[in-house]
Amino acid sequence: MAGLSVVIPTLEEASRLPLLLADLQRWPGELEVIVSDGGSRDHTRAVAQLAGATVLDSPSVGRGPQLRWGVGHSSHAWVLVLHADSRLPDTWHHKVGAILNRPEAHLSAWCFDFKVEAHGRPMLWLLERMVNLRSRWLQRPYGDQGLLIQRQLYERVGGYRPLALMEDLDLVERLSQVAPLRSLNCALLTSAERWQKRSVLVQAWRNARLRWLWRQGRSTEQLLRLYRR
Predict the structure, then answer these.
(1) What is the mean pLDDT of residues 167-178?
(2) Facing residues of 181 across strands?
(3) How far apart are CA 70 and CA 55, in angstroms?
(4) Is the confidence at residue 58, as pLDDT, over 90?
(5) Tell me, what's the pLDDT at 120?
(6) Is the pTM here over 0.90, yes or no?
(7) Domain coordinates of the chain in residue numbers?
(8) Cα Rg for the chain, rounded, in angstroms?
(9) Burial of 228 by CB count in 10 Å (0-12 exposed, 13-18 middle, 19+ buried)?
(10) CA-to-CA distance for 205 and 168, rounded, in angstroms?
């Protein structure tokens, strides 16, 4: 089995990170887990180190800079990027392993399907369907869906830019110009926290508005102010 580098950006993720790190232990080949930390003051670093992960102190805070730093320090040909509040499905290692064994796999980038951890909420069910349709037909997956990419393809498009917001959309828009983004055909479970703070419709509208403003050229500072409201 091919080696795999997993890069996880963190900031105060001590309560969520252990479950994801446990999920990663299913990988049957050589595994490198890099936690790119943005200055956590809780036990994030200790949790990661106890699980055998390499902890890096990112020079800048924000998913874009932290991911760029983490991927830049990884060593394997294949890189899997995950958010710390994600949970991998039981079969993830079989799905990813099968992809890595395909001779043409490096010509595409890959993502998981989108699934929210809360159950029994019809609007979340609808959200999942809409996001997955968007990912498959418009080639625009969320960062919550992870990203599996071969290093040469990642470097070809310039990798993550040091953006505090929209780093995922910025990367996949460049990727989609040179390679297809394809589904791994299994779902990555993401935290429902941000969808529970507000109604699903309100949060979806906020996300869409931020994406639109970003495309209009609004500054990162302006977007962050809106994001934090």
Answers:
(1) 94
(2) 109
(3) 9
(4) yes
(5) 63
(6) yes
(7) 4-194
(8) 17
(9) exposed
(10) 18
Burial-class residue 28 by CB neighbours within 10 Å (0-12, 13-18, 19+): exposed
Contact 78, 2 (CB under 8 A): yes
The helix (run of H) or strand (run of E) holding residue 83 is: none
Q: Which residues contact 37 (CB under 8 A, 6 or more apart)?
A: 9, 10, 11, 44, 45, 48, 55, 56, 57, 58, 66
Nearest Cα residue to 85 out of 171, 11, 191, 158: 191
CA distance 162 to 114: 25
User: What are the contacts of 168-172 at 24+ separation with CB within 8 A?
Assistant: 168/63, 168/141, 168/142, 168/143, 169/140, 169/211, 169/214, 170/64, 171/147, 172/109, 172/139, 172/140, 172/141, 172/147
Q: Which of 161, 157, 186 is nearest to 174 (CA)?
A: 157
pLDDT reading at 56 higher than 70: yes
* Rounded distance between C-alpha atoms, residue 154 and residue 179, angstroms: 11
Please answer whether residues 20 and 8 qualify as being in contact, where contact means their C-beta atoms are separated by less than 8 angstroms. Answer: yes
Say yes or no to pLDDT of 124 above 90. no
CATH says 4-194 is which class? Answer: alpha beta
- Tell me the two tokens of residue 77: 């040909």
Name 84's Cβ contacts closer than 8 Å, sequence gap at least 6: 8, 9, 10, 13, 16, 17, 20
Which residues are CB-contacts of 55 (< 8 A; sequence separation ≥ 6)? 35, 37, 45, 48, 49
Tokens matching residue 24: 């990663």
